[in-house]
Amino acid sequence: MAVYTEVSDEALAAFLAHYDIGALVSFKGIAEGVENSNFLLVTDRGPYILTLYEKRVDPADLPYFLGLMQHLAKHGVTCPLPVACRDGALARELCGRPAAIVTFLPGVWPRRIRNEHCAGVGAALAQLHEAGAGFALRRANALGPAGWRPLLDRCLPRADTVREGLAAELEAALGAILALWPSGLPAGHIHADLFPDNVFFLNERVSGLIDFYFACTDLYAYDLAVCLNAWCFEADGSFNVTKGRLMIAAYEAKRPLSAAEAEALPTLCAGAAIRFLLTRLHDWLHHPPGAFVTPKDPLEYLRKLRFHRTVRGAADYGR
Amino acid sequence: MAVYTEVSDEALAAFLAHYDIGALVSFKGIAEGVENSNFLLVTDRGPYILTLYEKRVDPADLPYFLGLMQHLAKHGVTCPLPVACRDGALARELCGRPAAIVTFLPGVWPRRIRNEHCAGVGAALAQLHEAGAGFALRRANALGPAGWRPLLDRCLPRADTVREGLAAELEAALGAILALWPSGLPAGHIHADLFPDNVFFLNERVSGLIDFYFACTDLYAYDLAVCLNAWCFEADGSFNVTKGRLMIAAYEAKRPLSAAEAEALPTLCAGAAIRFLLTRLHDWLHHPPGAFVTPKDPLEYLRKLRFHRTVRGAADYGR
Question: Nearest Cα to B219, choosing from B265, B250, B162, B154?
Answer without folding.
Answer: B265
